[in-house]
Specification:
The chain has about 325 residues and is α+β, with helices and mostly antiparallel strands. Helix content is about 40%, strand content about 15%. α4 packs across α5. It starts with a helix and ends in a 17-residue tail after the last strand.
């Protein structure tokens, strides 16, 4: 009897060991997913591999708060950026300091006139003034619309409606070009134009469209008008410009009172509005200011080109 009992026990031991060893060996061969391949064990079945997560698509480029490095040669330089989705404003430490608005103000003058016009028909004469004030930065056209709006009240409405906090009206004759405005207030004005507060529901698209049609380069300057298609628009990559219209209005004058260029750049999209403002010596020319505006815009693009490869952003060289 004992030899038979011993043989039976040996056979049972072999069978039990096989049951234990086979799943363990299979686990090693199947990459640790043996239980998933054995129906019913542990309540897991089907034998299907878990798919790898799909690669994430990087967000489209936009402008966002970030460091700006400009080797600026002049008396005043500042900038501000508003995220129009959140209303948050970021910018230079001195973004509450002011500069004369110059022709940047024409975007508001036109909007204010049209809002007050409301549902009344726009005469051919006034339409021509609006088109030339924006596209060609024509001073005479802007002055005519400013007079039609009542002069100083035009600027008072700007401060009140757009909730500006740093802006001061020129005290003697309320000259629109000499209005002192900060970059922080400039992006608020841009948002005010973009959201329809400035021109009203009927005319906002018209104003923003005209601001996309600004024409002429830095060399196209005349006595009472001049080219204004430069600056921020030149610093934006094609990927941003392809997302939707970029409406712009620059202000630029060489003032003999201080022998300084007063240059301002304003751009408005449905996502953000950016303002760059500066004063610098006459000898540097208008092209210098245009380059500064473009540089600021380029540095605020996110993600930066090469960001996926963790290439560090390089500071801008001398301008």
């Amino acid at each position: 009897m004992r030899p038979r009992v011993t043989m039976v026990l040996a056979i049972v031991a072999v069978l039990i060991g096989g049951v234990i060893l086979v799943p363990a060996a299979y686990t090693r061969l199947s990459g640790g997913n043996a239980l998933a391949s054995i129906g019913g064990i542990g309540g897991i079945g089907g034998g299907q591999n878990v798919p790898a997560p799909a690669p994430t698509t990087p967000p489209p480029p936009t402008l966002a708060a970030g460091p700006v490095s400009v080797d600026f040669k002049g008396k005043f330089f500042s900038w501000a950026l508003m995220d129009r989705k959140t209303g948050e404003i970021s910018g230079a430490k001195n973004m509450t300091a002011t500069n004369s608005t110059e022709s940047m103000m024409k975007a508001w003058i036109v909007s204010d006139y049209l809002r007050q016009l409301g549902d009344k028909p726009l005469s051919p004469k006034r339409k021509q003034e609006i088109v030339t004030a924006i596209r060609d930065s024509n001073d005479k056209s802007a002055e005519s619309l400013y007079n039609a709006g009542g002069r100083r009240p035009v600027l008072e409405r700007l401060i009140k409606m757009c909730k500006l906090t740093d802006t001061k009206i020129e005290p003697t004759r309320a000259k629109w070009a000499y209005t002192q405005m900060s970059p922080r207030d400039a992006v608020r004005m841009g948002d005010c134009i973009g959201d329809g507060t400035a021109a009203g529901q009927k005319w906002t698209k018209f104003v923003l469209s005209e601001m996309t049609k600004v024409r002429g380069g830095v060399e196209d300057q005349q006595a009472t008008q001049g080219g204004g298609r430069w600056g921020i628009i030149d610093g934006l990559p094609d990927e941003i410009k392809a997302q939707g219209p970029v409406s712009i209005k620059n202000g630029f004058t060489m003032l003999w009172a201080d022998v300084q260029w007063h240059v301002n750049c304003l751009a408005v999209t449905d996502k953000w509005t950016l303002a760059v403002m500066m004063r610098y010596p006459q000898k540097n020319g208008l092209a210098y200011g245009a380059k500064v505006c473009a540089s600021v815009a380029t540095q605020l693009v996110t993600p930066q080109p090469g960001a996926a490869l963790k290439v560090p952003q390089q500071p801008v060289g001398k301008l």
